[in-house]
Write a structure and sequence with these properties.
Layout: E1 5-11, E2 20-22, E3 24-28, E4 31-32, E5 38-42, E6 47-48, E7 60-63, E8 69-73, E9 76-81, E10 90-94, E11 97-103, H1 106-116, E12 120-124, E13 132-133, E14 144-145, E15 153-157, H2 158-169, E16 188-191, E17 203-206, E18 209-218, H3 237-243, E19 245-246, E20 249-258, E21 262-265, E22 270-272
Parallel strand pairs: 15-16
Antiparallel strand pairs: 1-2, 1-16, 3-4, 3-21, 5-6, 5-12, 7-8, 8-9, 10-11, 11-12, 13-14, 15-20, 17-18, 17-22, 18-20, 19-20
Length: about 270
């Protein structure tokens, strides 16, 4: 078996919008720099994702050097959004838990409302005191996350996707496969590991940064959403439900928490520490 290496790195500047590939990324305690620091909220202040609005997959947020973003989407003119001043925060809700964030203003709200056909706004989180705690059942004291679902990073392996696609090819919805890795919206993709080897990992090093493996990642309807067309199918949830279940959840990939900061780069050697 070859030495595992980091094949690709991905950030999602706005939660649930299109992933952006990077050749390197700074690892911060709450995730990759620039990953899911922005989120879309509805009129009730609840964070919304592709679970409810699959067309978010077609929208892109390109980061700017100043920390702002440029929003673009089919049928909409690009919009530059500066980082809002942190003087006034609002309480928003993510997975039934409140968190403080800073609203981006009416221009961003109008752009999103027109694209998603409803009443929506954009919020930003960057102050350390506004981070969310990682699930205490799987966290060490002081571990935090921004707008990611529950953990700072998600890692997947290329070999496990190949194995999953082989299973899909044998099923009733073989025509939907093979699926690309972007269905799973990972931050890190590793190649050179055995299929499903990540199930046994508890600590790993990617280049100069070490990570704790918190728990397997439970998967939802977002994985059935084509990230290029926003159309939905049955896979991979149907096949995962038959072959990859843990604690009542269908799983693919592992949630990670950084043990310290540093920079990771495509091609970095991956060492399984425990």
């Amino acid at each position: 078996m070859p030495t595992p290496v980091l094949r690709s790195v991905h950030v999602h500047p706005v939660k649930a919008m299109r992933a952006l590939a990077r050749t390197e990324a700074e690892v911060q305690p709450w995730g990759l720099a620039g990953d899911r620091r922005w989120a879309v909220v509805d009129a009730a202040g609840k964070v919304v994702t592709q679970r409810r609005h699959p067309r978010m997959a077609l929208a892109t947020a390109e980061p700017l050097p100043c920390g702002g973003i440029v929003l673009s989407a089919p049928g909409r003119p690009p919009l530059t959004v500066e980082v809002p001043h942190p003087s006034a925060t609002v309480s928003v809700e993510i997975f039934d838990k409140p968190v403080e964030a800073v609203p981006a203003g009416p221009a961003a709200a109008g752009w999103l409302s027109a694209y998603l056909e409803g009443e929506f706004g954009l919020v930003h989180m960057d102050a350390p005191e506004h981070r969310r705690p990682v699930d205490p059942d799987y966290a060490l004291p002081g571990e935090t996350v921004s707008f990611a679902d529950g953990y700072p990073l998600l890692v997947t392996t290329a070999s496990s996707l190949d194995a999953l696609n082989s299973l899909i090819a044998q099923g009733d919805h073989a025509h939907e496969g093979p699926l690309p890795m972007n269905r799973f919206r990972p931050n890190l993709v590793i190649e050179g590991a055995a299929p499903w080897a990540e199930d046994g990992w508890t600590r790993l090093a990617v280049g100069e940064v070490t990570f704790r493996v918190a728990r397997p990642c439970g998967r939802c309807v977002v994985t059935t959403t084509d990230q290029v067309t926003a159309e939905r199918g049955k896979e991979p949830l149907r096949t995962l439900a038959r072959h990859r279940k843990s604690d009542g959840r269908v799983i693919f990939g592992q949630n990670l928490v950084p043990e310290h900061t540093g920079t990771i780069r495509v091609g970095d050697e991956v060492k399984i520490l425990d």
